[in-house]
Structure formats: structure tokens, C-alpha cells
């Protein structure tokens, strides 16, 4: 236990920031008082405080890097929460519920997501209504087709019509391959 020099309250040592130069290894002010003091100092002269922090970061790149690596997962999780909330008004729990309802796969191609990469939230750009979760490829494909149902139907007709004429295509592929080999001076 330790008494704060600013507020005078008796608090646990964990409520004080570390200070190697102090006898007990802790600052004389509690964390709440220290943070309030830093906030006041920042509001009085933000440029000076920003410059002070930048100078410390440049003087201690290994410590900055170690902190970033240690807190990477926590920061990414927080950024994901902020993105879902701000862009789609979704919580992480709601996202997980949609993913579970889709059996953990893309709503279109039914492929599982790439490890470390979550599925994209697919939404109607006109109404903002969420339709489901898509992998990168399916999400990009819908975007490239401008989410136009008629264009998607024409693409489906094109792909199925192409399948009927595969024997033609293979003969063109064979001719192209033979021509390439002839130009290179090899036998096909």
C-alpha cells in the first residue's frame, strides 16, 4: 500500500506507475493523478507534448518495436471492433453469429476463410442491409459486377455457354501452343 502524493488516498502499489529511481520502484502519484496531470499538460500545449513523445520514440526504437509486437493482437482486435461498429453498426458478437449461421464459410462459394483473414461483411450499398459474409474473391466479384443482377445472370449464361463449346476452345489452345513451340524451334 502507498499514499498518493497528489490526492492523498491510500492505494495498492499496482495503482502507481513504475519508476526505477524511486525507493519503492513506483512514482509518488497514483495512475489516476498522473494521467490527469498529463492530460492537463497536453491540453495546455499539445504540440510540445507530441514533440516530446516523438523524441522519446525516436530515441527508443527497440522499446517502441517491442511494445508494438507485444500489443499487436490486442490493437488489431480493437481496430476490427471499431471497423465493424462504425461501418456496419455490428458488434463482434453479431458478426460471429452471422458466421456461425453460415457454418463458418463464405455465403457464396462456401469456402472457409483464409487463416488470419476474416470474411468481409457484404451489404446492400443502397439500404445498408447486411446480406452475409463473403470471402475476398466473392466480395470483389460482386463489386466488379456492380451488384447488378442482370449482369450477373448474363455472366452465368456466358460461363455455361462457354462450357458447351469447350472442344472448339481446346482446338484453338492446341493451335496456339503448336504455333508457340514452332516459333521457339521445338516440336509440339
Going by CATH, the architecture of the largest domain would be 3-Layer(aba) Sandwich
Number of domains: 3
Main sheet makeup: 2 strands, antiparallel
How far from one another are the termini?
86 Å
CATH class of the largest domain: Alpha Beta
Can you describe this structure in just a few lines?
It is built from 8 helices and 6 strands.
Notable traits:
188 residues; mainly alpha; Wheat Germ Agglutinin (Isolectin 2), domain 1; two-stranded antiparallel sheet; two-stranded antiparallel ribbon; 11% strand
Question: What features would you describe in this structure?
Answer:
The structure is a single chain. The chain is mainly α. The chain has helices at about 30-45, 45-60, 60-70, 70-90, 90-100, 135-145, 150-165, 165-185; strands at about 1-5, 10, 15-20, 25-30, 120-125, 130-135. The protein has a two-stranded antiparallel ribbon. Strands 3-4 form a two-stranded antiparallel ribbon. Strands 5-6 form a two-stranded antiparallel ribbon. The model has no long low-confidence stretch (mean pLDDT about 90).
Topology (SSEs and partners):
Layout: E1 2-3, E2 10-11, E3 16-18, E4 26-30, H1 31-44, H2 46-59, H3 61-70, H4 72-88, H5 92-101, E5 120-123, E6 130-134, H6 136-144, H7 149-164, H8 166-184
Antiparallel strand pairs: 1-2, 3-4, 5-6
Amino acid at each position: 500500500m502507498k499514499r498518493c502524493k497528489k490526492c492523498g488516498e491510500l492505494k495498492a502499489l499496482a495503482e502507481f506507475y513504475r519508476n526505477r529511481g524511486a525507493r519503492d520502484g513506483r512514482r509518488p502519484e497514483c495512475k489516476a493523478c498522473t494521467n490527469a496531470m498529463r492530460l492537463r499538460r497536453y491540453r495546455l500545449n499539445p504540440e510540445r507534448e507530441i514533440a516530446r513523445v516523438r523524441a522519446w520514440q525516436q530515441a527508443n526504437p527497440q522499446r517502441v518495436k517491442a511494445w508494438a509486437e507485444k500489443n499487436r493482437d490486442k490493437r488489431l482486435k480493437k481496430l476490427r471492433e471499431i471497423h465493424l461498429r462504425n461501418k456496419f453498426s455490428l458488434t463482434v458478437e453479431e458478426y460471429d453469429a452471422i458466421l456461425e449461421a453460415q457454418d463458418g464459410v463464405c455465403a457464396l462459394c462456401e469456402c472457409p476463410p483464409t487463416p488470419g483473414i476474416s470474411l468481409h461483411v457484404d451489404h446492400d450499398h443502397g439500404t445498408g442491409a447486411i446480406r452475409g459474409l463473403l470471402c475476398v474473391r466473392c466480395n470483389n466479384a460482386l463489386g466488379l459486377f456492380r451488384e447488378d443482377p442482370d449482369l450477373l445472370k448474363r455472366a452465368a449464361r456466358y460461363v455455361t455457354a462457354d462450357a458447351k463449346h469447350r472442344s472448339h476452345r481446346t482446338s484453338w489452345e492446341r493451335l496456339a501452343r503448336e504455333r508457340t513451340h514452332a516459333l521457339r524451334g521445338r516440336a509440339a
